[in-house]
């Protein structure tokens, strides 16, 4: 066996394992990432020099890195061109057409639509300077390497060729650790302030579904207070709670710095089917499905029914097994999909890390409502940053239908992404002023 296989086995990241486990539910970006990883594995196997540790006649790390870099770059350029071709097909068939007949679609049948081009070669070169991918002799380009290259490519495209007008963030794991709050020392705060000062609108699109401003203030006070201290005008930042159910806008002088916005202002016409009756019917089915799972899997949990959601959660200090959470999501999702109630309104069943919730609507509606609230921002000028992009029990991946996305794995990666956006914008500003002066 080549080194690659041993390494792949030892290093398989959690998302990849999850994907194999749930391969029946293949998700576009996961499959695309796996496919790119497979393409890069070939030059890795052929060019890596694991024996140069003990054989002097083999190319040095620097020589090997140069040839690997050139091949990886060329492959990323080829994929970049396939995406350009895919977008051309998409435009002919309409953005929402699912039968795009592009070559990329033939190669990766589950691939979704793209809102912008992705400069993958440039993005690879950027990440290679950071992660030294080409210098590695034992570890092939990984799922995480490619996920981060795609994020960088998305940021480059939004800043250089499109225009970034709205950034929406998930809450838990994206802006702060799971179940924590956005405290004043959070490093995302100065970066979000920077975006706001540049005129970019901000949305926090979270599953956390509270109806009271005070609860959101309790989770987000570090950011909301910083906005007031920096004289950010009202209504430049919104909080969308319960995926797509409750919209609040930042208002400095309101008691909790948030003001509830009437649904007529932000709801999309398609949301008119979200009547109390349809919501109740869907949540009734979901609650009974959750209770079936609680009993089948003997889980020590409480059931929580809210106005727009129903969920299960364990007592403090008890950790549910990943398999229990994911089994519950899949069973509940299946029962709901087969019920007449779910034909009338969209829903989102997801694994929140140590709980399972079924929410009315999903983040595609949440992001589209924010786009509407801010005057009709296009998907190609809007970026959603989140941690849940696997199909089995994830809630951010639905945002992929509404706008460009960045898949991060921790709040530290969100900070790194915002720094990339800031550096790219500064570089763009410099090149504009140079060409303006010429
Ligand atoms: P997010 O990562 O910001 O989308 O937050 C997800 C977490 O919010 C879930 O894992 C739950 O722990 C919590 N949560 C609180 N209320 C709700 C609700 O009404 N629906 C879904 N999740 C909720
Ligand atoms: Mg999250």
Topology:
Blueprint lengths: L2 H9 L2 H8 L6 H20 L13 H33 L9 H5 L12 H12 L11 H18 L5 E4 L18 H10 L3 E5 L7 H17 L7 E5 L4 E5 L7 E3 L2 H4 L9 H21 L5 E4 L3 E5 L8 H16 L3 H4 L2 E5 L4 E5 L2 H11 L8 E5 L17 E4 L3 H27 L1
Parallel strand pairs: 1-2, 1-10, 2-3, 10-11
Antiparallel strand pairs: 3-4, 4-5, 6-7, 7-9, 8-9
This protein binds inosinic acid and magnesium ion.
Describe the structure.
There is one protein chain. The protein contains 15 helices and eleven strands. Residues 1-27 have low confidence and may be disordered. The protein has helices at residues 3-11, 14-21, 28-47, 61-93, 103-107, 120-131, 143-160, 188-197, 213-229, 263-266, 276-296, 322-337, 341-344, 363-373, 411-437, and strands spanning 166-169, 201-205, 237-241, 246-250, 258-260, 302-305, 309-313, 347-351, 356-360, 382-386, 404-407. The protein folds into three domains: 26-160, no CATH class; 166-273 and 362-435, Rossmann fold (3-Layer(aba) Sandwich), CATH 3.40.50; 276-360, Alpha-Beta Plaits, CATH 3.30.70. The longest helix has 33 residues, at 61-93. It is globular. Helix 7 packs parallel to helix 15 (411-437) and helix 11 packs across helix 12 (322-337). Helices cover 49% and strands 11% of the residues. The strands form two sheets. Strands 5-4-3-2-1-10-11 form a seven-stranded mixed sheet, sandwiched between helices. The chain has a four-stranded antiparallel sheet with strand order 6-7-9-8, covered by helices on one side. The protein has 438 residues and is α/β, with parallel strands linked by helices. Residues 170-173, 206-209, 242, 306, 309, 311, 352-353, 355, 357, 359, 395 line the site of inosinic acid. It is an enzyme of class 3 (hydrolase). InterPro entries: HAD-like_sf (IPR036412), ISN1 (IPR009453). Homotetramer. Pfam families: ISN1. Its cofactor is Mg(2+).
């Amino acid at each position: 066996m080549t080194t690659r296989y041993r390494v792949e086995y030892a290093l398989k990241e959690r998302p990849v394992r999850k994907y194999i486990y749930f391969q029946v539910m293949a998700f576009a970006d996961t499959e695309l990432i796996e496919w790119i990883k497979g393409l890069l594995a070939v030059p890795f196997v052929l060019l890596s020099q694991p024996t140069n540790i003990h054989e002097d006649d083999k190319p040095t790390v620097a020589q090997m890195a140069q040839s690997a870099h050139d091949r990886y770059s060329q492959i990323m350029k080829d994929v970049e061109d396939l995406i350009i071709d895919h977008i051309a097909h998409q435009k002919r068939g309409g953005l929402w057409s699912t039968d795009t007949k592009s070559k990329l679609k033939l190669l990766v049948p589950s691939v979704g639509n793209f809102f912008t081009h992705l400069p993958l070669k440039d993005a690879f070169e950027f990440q290679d300077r950071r992660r030294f991918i080409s210098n590695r002799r034992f570890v092939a380009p990984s799922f995480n390497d490619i996920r981060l290259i795609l994020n960088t490519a998305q940021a480059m495209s939004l800043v250089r060729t499109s225009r970034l007008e709205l950034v929406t963030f998930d809450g838990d794991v994206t802006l702060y650790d799971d179940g924590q709050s956005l405290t004043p020392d959070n490093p995302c705060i100065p970066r979000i302030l920077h975006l706001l000062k540049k005129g970019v609108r901000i949305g926090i699109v979270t599953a956390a579904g509270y109806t009271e401003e005070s609860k959101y203030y309790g989770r987000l006070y570090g950011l909301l207070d910083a906005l007031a201290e920096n004289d950010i005008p009202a209504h430049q930042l919104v909080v969308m709670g319960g995926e797509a159910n409750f919209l609040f806008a930042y208002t400095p002088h309101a008691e909790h710095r948030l003001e509830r916005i009437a649904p007529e202002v932000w709801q999309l016409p398609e949301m008119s089917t979200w009547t109390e009756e349809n919501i109740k019917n869907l949540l009734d089915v979901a609650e009974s499905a959750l209770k079936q799972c609680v009993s089948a899997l003997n889980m020590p949990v409480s059931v929580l029914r809210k106005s727009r959601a129903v969920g299960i959660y364990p007592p403090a200090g008890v950790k549910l097994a990943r398999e229990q959470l994911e089994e519950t999501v899949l069973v509940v999702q299946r029962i709901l999909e087969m019920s007449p109630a779910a034909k009338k309104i969209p829903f989102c069943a997801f694994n929140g890390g140590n709980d399972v919730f079924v929410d009315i609507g999903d983040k595609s509606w949440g992001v589209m409502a924010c786009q509407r609230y801010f005057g009709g921002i296009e998907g190609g000028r809007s970026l959603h940053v989140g941690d849940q992009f696997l199909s089995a029990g994830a809630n951010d991946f639905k945002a992929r239908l509404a706008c460009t996305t960045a898949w991060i794995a921790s709040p530290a990666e969100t900070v790194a992404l915002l720094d990339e956006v800031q550096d790219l914008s500064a570089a763009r500003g410099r090149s504009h002023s140079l060409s303006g002066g010429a």
